[in-house]
Automatic annotation (TrEMBL):
Record-listed Zn(2+) binding positions: 39, 42, 58, 61
NCBIfam families cross-referenced by the UniProt entry: accD (TIGR00515)
Keyword flag Disulfide bond: no
Complex formation: Acetyl-CoA carboxylase is a heterohexamer composed of biotin carboxyl carrier protein (AccB), biotin carboxylase (AccC) and two subunits each of ACCase subunit alpha (AccA) and ACCase subunit beta (AccD).
Superkingdom: Bacteria
Signal peptide start-end: none
Annotated CoA carboxyltransferase N-terminal domain residues: 35-295
Name of the protein in its database record: Acetyl-coenzyme A carboxylase carboxyl transferase subunit beta
Function: Component of the acetyl coenzyme A carboxylase (ACC) complex. Biotin carboxylase (BC) catalyzes the carboxylation of biotin on its carrier protein (BCCP) and then the CO(2) group is transferred by the transcarboxylase to acetyl-CoA to form malonyl-CoA.
EC number: 2.1.3.15
Broadest EC class assigned to this enzyme: transferase
InterPro entries according to UniProt: AcCoA_carboxyl_beta (IPR034733), Acetyl_CoA_COase_Trfase_b_su (IPR000438), ClpP/crotonase-like_dom_sf (IPR029045), COA_CT_N (IPR011762), Znf-ACC (IPR041010)
Compartments, as annotated in UniProt: Cytoplasm
Annotated gene: accD
Source organism: Clostridium frigidicarnis
Length: 295
């Protein structure tokens, strides 16, 4: 009799409310993916449309999310669909590096672009320019032979047509899968820029996040005017590599455009909302025009 009080049941009791709660969870609001984004700087959640309306920045802390070439072109150029140039130049596999072709095809599919740089002949407030917009979403914007060829062709076009050249840099450095073919692009582009300089042409570089490696060590830093987008990472080797080499701790803001401006390596830090206006002003000053009479 007493043992029956301590006897365990061989089943569990399921309440009706548990099923009701389950149904309630399943019938919750269906929020499309990408409606909300988390800021990489302050960690706050932002409504996507608000972020886009604020030039793809965080309304709380001002952090800039990265722009792909299509987004950058929409921000800078007058044309809704600016003319792309040198789209026929594609990446090859000169060293027959294993899996390289597959990775390139995947990058093309994911980014919607054919290379880590997209080149344009377009207008900024009515002023015709040649522009190269690098893409960190394509193989981390790494510099291969196709990228070097496209930028070199743009430099040559700007020289021949006497047009301002603007390069928006965003790169993880040289593309290891192409070995020496990748590294030689540094000298190739710089040689073309030297010819542009001798002809009195204008070259403006805009450093965006991230600009590192061979791109920093070559054409990114030798422009007539070097602008930096607020908060961009700019450097050559990685922070940890440098600290381990010199056995010292680096400043907190090391390898930022703010640090570079403080040390005199760049000319100005720009806000995205003012970038088009500033570029137009520089172009008109170079050609001897009056900025205040521009559109």
């Amino acid at each position: 009799m007493i043992k029956s009080f301590f006897k365990r049941n061989n089943y569990i009791t399921v309440s009706k409310t548990s099923f009701q709660n389950e149904d309630r969870c399943e019938k919750g609001p269906n929020i499309p993916e990408g409606t909300w984004v988390k800021c990489n700087s302050c960690g706050k959640i932002i409504y996507s449309k608000d972020m886009i309306n604020e030039y793809k920045s965080c309304k709380y802390c001002g952090y800039y999310f990265r722009l792909n070439p299509r987004e950058r072109a929409k921000l800078i150029f007058d044309e809704e669909n600016p003319k792309k140039i040198f789209e026929n130049i594609r990446t090859s596999n000169p060293l027959n590096f294993p899996e390289y072709d597959k990775k390139i095809n995947k990058a093309i599919k994911n980014s919607g672009e054919t290379e880590a740089v997209t080149c344009y002949e377009a207008h900024i407030n009515g002023e015709k320019v040649v522009a190269c917009i690098m893409n960190s979403e394509f193989f981390m914007g790494s510099m291969g032979s196709a990228l070097g060829e496209k930028i070199t062709r743009c430099v040559e076009m700007a020289t021949e047509k006497k047009l301002p050249l603007i390069i928006f840099t965003a790169s993880g450095g040289a593309r290891m899968q192409e070995g020496m073919f990748s590294l030689m692009q540094m000298a190739k582009v710089n040689s073309a820029l030297k010819r542009l300089h001798k002809c009195g042409g204008l070259y403006i570089s805009v450093l965006t996040d991230p600009t590192t490696g061979g791109v920093t060590a070559s054409f990114a830093m030798i422009a007539d005017i070097v602008l930096g987008e607020k908060g961009a990472l700019v450097g050559f080797a990685g922070r940890r590599v440098i600290e381990n080499t010199i056995k010292e701790n680096l400043p907190e803001n090391f390898q930022t455009v703010e640090f570079l401006l403080e040390k005199g390596f760049i000319d100005k830090i720009v806000e995205r909302k003012n970038l088009k206006k500033i570029l137009c002003k520089i172009i008109l000053m170079h050609k001897g025009g009056n900025y205040f009479e521009s559109k």
